[in-house]
Each structure stands twice: as C-alpha cells, then as structure tokens.
Amino acid sequence: MTTPRSIIDKIWDQHVVADLGDGRVLLHIDRHMLHEVTSPQAYAGLAAAGRRLRRPDLTFATADHIVSTENGRTDDTVPGGPEMIRALRANAESTGVALFDLGDIRQGIVHVIAPELGIALPGATLVCGDSHTSTVGALGAMAWGIGTSEVEHVMATQTAILRRPPTMRITFTGTRPAGVSAKDMVLKLIATIGTAGATGYGVEYAGPAIRALSMEERMTVCNMSVELGARFGLIAPDAVTFAYLQGRPFAPAGDLWERAVEAWRALASDPGARFDAEIELDVSSLTPQVSWGTSPQDCIGVGETVPDPEREADPKRRQAMRRALDYIGLEPGTPIRDLPVDMVFIGSCTNSRIEDLRAAAAVLKGRRVAAGLRALVVPGSGQVRRQAEAEGLDRVFTAAGFEWREPGCSMCAGMNADRVPPGKRCVATSNRNFEGRQGPGARTHLASPATAAAAAVAGRIVDVRSFEGGA
Q1: Which pLDDT does position 368 carry in this prediction?
Q2: Does residue 470 register a pLDDT over 70?
Q3: Exposed, middle or buried by CB within 10 Å (0-12, 13-18, 19+), for 259?
Q4: pLDDT digits (tens, 9 = 90+) for 279-315
Q5: So what's the pLDDT on residue 415?
Q6: Residue 298 Cα distances to 172, 195, 322, 328, 409, angstroms
Q7: Locate the Aconitase/3-isopropylmalate dehydratase large subunit alpha/beta/alpha domain: which residues (predicted)?
Q8: Does the annotation flag 409 for ligand binding?
Q9: Are 354 and 254 within one domain?
Q10: Higher pLDDT, 121 or 471
C-alpha cells in the first residue's frame, strides 16, 4: 500500500532534479515569467558571468509595474520607466523570449496574463520575480515569487534551489452568503490567523466553499497567500479548472489536451494525506470585509468598529496597532462604515479580471461617483479590457465617473504616476495596505470590487449588500 500524498507532495516529487544533500533540492521550473523591474539586473548578471538563457521557450515577459495606464501611453510616460521597459524589450529580443509588449493585446499584469494565456497549468512549477506569483496556484500549479539572484539562477539553469516546505491545508466550510466575495473570504482568513499564520508553508486551499468559487475567484484567494506568509498556495484542479483552460493559446490542444486532463485529474490530495498543519474557516456568517490599519490582517466586517489597541494582550501587536491607527488617522471604536473616502481604485493582480469588473459595474450601473471623489478602474490585461468593452462595462464605468485605464499594476504598488496623495483615504481592491504602499502618506482600505464600487458612489465606506446589484 502506498502512503497517501498531498497534491503538494505529488508536484514536488515530479520536479526534483537533484538532492543537494543538505536539505535542499534542485527543482525543475516549468515556466518562468519576467517583468521589467526585476529582470534587467538578472540579465546583466547572466551576461557578466558569460552564461546564456537556458530555456527561452519556457520564459515569457511583459511590462506591467512601471508602465503608464493612461490612454495613449508610450514608453516615456512614466519617469524612470523607459530604461526598464526598453531593457526588457532588448533582452527579450536578443534571447528569443516571447514578449507581450505595450500595444500587444496580450500585455498586462504578469499574474493575470499567465493563466489567461494558458502559460500556467495544473501540476506545473512557475516562478517570477514578484511575490504575488502565488496567484496562479488557483490552477493547481506550484507557483511562487523569487528574488533577482534567483531569477538569474532560473534563467541559467531552469531550476530553483529550495527546501521542501511544511504543508498546510486550509479548509473553507459552509456556504458563502450573498454579497460576500472571494476577497472577503481571504481577508477574513488573514485577519483570523495573521500575516505570519502560514509562514513558510505550502498551502492547499480546500473545502466546499473553495470548490464553489469560479476560477477567477480562486485566483483572488491564491493571490493573497503571500500575505499569510505562505511560500505558495494552490487549489487542486477540477472541472472548473479544465473548462477555464481549454482553448487558451499556450495550453495543450488536440490529443495532448485529453492526455493532460487525464494527468491533471490525479492531482488531488489522497484521502488520509498528511499535512503539517490544518486550519478550518466557516464562511456561513461572513460579511464584507474592510481593512482599518496598515496590514492585511487589520480587517473587520463592514458593520464593526475599529479595535482598541489597549485591549490587545501582546505588547508588540499593541504597539503595531497604535502605529497603524496613527498612520491611518482613525480612533479606536470608530465604525468603519460611513468613513469618508477620497479615492477608489479597482485593479491589481488581486482584482482586475473580468469577473471583478462585472461585480463593480453591477453596483455602478445607473449611479454616479460621489462629488469630489476620484475613481480609477484598471483592467488587468489587454484582453480583460477588450472583453469589458465588448460587454459595455467601460461605458458603465465612465458614465459613473470612473477613469477607464490601460492595463498595468497602477495604483497597487504606486510605482508609476497612479498614486494616492498624502493624507488621502482610498478604498482599493489591491492586496497590501502598508504605509506608503499607494504613495507616501496614502491611507489604504482593502476591500472587494463590489465594496469599492459602492464606496465610490457613496463617498464613504458602505455595506455593499444595501446596494441593488451588490448582493
């Protein structure tokens, strides 16, 4: 009798190239994604060492972080960007790497286009010099962010050096209430176990509430695995996964598709598979979540009040809460609902896919953004933008008073011109609310696309379930 194995064990074992004898292994990397911020240094290191890019056919590039999202953009629109964008272009051309450049309908946020194009596949290992690479774990891939030196290593060898991570299964039980999104599920998880709650683990998300999610909703959950401290997070592939992938440009086709699906069906944790840690979260009574502080774990239900640091037993946590409240400009006991906001941002690798835009547009249809509030919607890719325009969503957004932008990371990372001014309060669908994340002095409140859209209309944080189209 064979020992029951988890999906993580199965993918790991299939990719070990060599045991280095010190607890580390060489792991084969099936796909490597590059972007303009972390690849130029790696290319320079490769050239300095006299090495070549080993597998250009398994390497894909796009520009997303420092690109402008303004309509009519060029390489030169964002100060500091032209050098990185042109370096990526030149490096991709000289090494034969597929580049999804500005002006290409396939350009977009790296974690959005990898599944959209079928580059990310079940059972694959995928890396990128970006921490939210965990997003594509939603397809049943083992995917994680790597540093610049590791990017160079993967480019030279098509392998990564890793220690086998401990495994954790997080099971979502119950039925998600109407008006509650996958973003609310993962924010509640982080608020429950903390940003260090899964540090170093390889996480499998499981349970009926996960199985009930669409493919794009699963990407939202896996995207924020890194906010739990996890090495990566994934979901076993199923019929939802296969339906999403079939026909994607880089996915297997013809006979290869049938053989691939047969292999992918085996990628599930065996009954009795052992995990180093197990967590269970019931979503039956979950409400829309909004962050109050400067960490993704600083989240509460939209009907709750800002917690009091003086009630916190842990002195380090108490001090962190005080600092967060000082930065965000809130007092303990303040209801998060009805808090006035200055800006709304719908976008980022967490929530910029077509389903996210549909959810926001459903709230905005026939309504207007509150006077004096600035609102941006930034599709995650050229294909998302085109699909949204085909469905008329762009007209819903612009009629409501939103700015309709070109694809890119935009106001999530604040690396281009899209920033929140100091002291201004923004409801954002992105993944991080750190001090200065959206610009120096910016005050960020994380929320779902529907909650963000409702806040744009009301000019304050509201319970989206009270809006027609939001439930």
Answers
A1: 98
A2: no
A3: exposed
A4: 999 999 999 999 999 999 999 999 999 999 999 999 9
A5: 83
A6: 20, 9, 12, 11, 23
A7: 9-459
A8: yes
A9: no
A10: 121
CA 13 – CA 164 distance, rounded (Å): 10
Q: Which of 469, 460, 459, 416 is nearest to 438 (CA)?
A: 416
> Is 78 in contact with 406 (CB distance < 8 Å)?
no
Q: What local confidence, expressed as pLDDT, does residue 80 receive?
A: 74
CATH at 461: 3.30.499.10
Same domain, 254 and 328: no
Q: Is the pLDDT of residue 471 over 70?
A: no
Provide CB contacts within 8 A for 60, sequence distance 6+. Answer: 31, 32, 33, 34, 97, 98, 99, 100, 114, 117, 119
Count: domains in the chain:
2
Of 210, 183, 193, 206, nearest in space to 287 by CA? 183
Are residues 272 and 9 in contact, defined by beta-carbon separation less than 8 angstroms? no
447 and 344 share a domain? yes
Look at 71 and 457; give whichever has higher pLDDT.
457
pLDDT digits (tens, 9 = 90+) for 349-366: 999 999 999 999 999 999
Secondary structure of 374-423 in the HEC alphabet? EEEECCCEHHHHHHHHHCCHHHHHHHHCCEECCCCCHHHCCCCCCCCCCC
Q: Encoding tokens for residue 41? A: 């240094």
Answer yes or no: is 412 a known binding residue.
yes
Q: What is the pLDDT of residues 192-206, one digit of tens each?
A: 999 999 999 999 999
Report yes or no: 469 and 363 within 8 Å, Cβ to Cβ.
yes
Tokens of 241: 């996964």
pLDDT for 279 equals 98
Name residue 90's amino acid: A
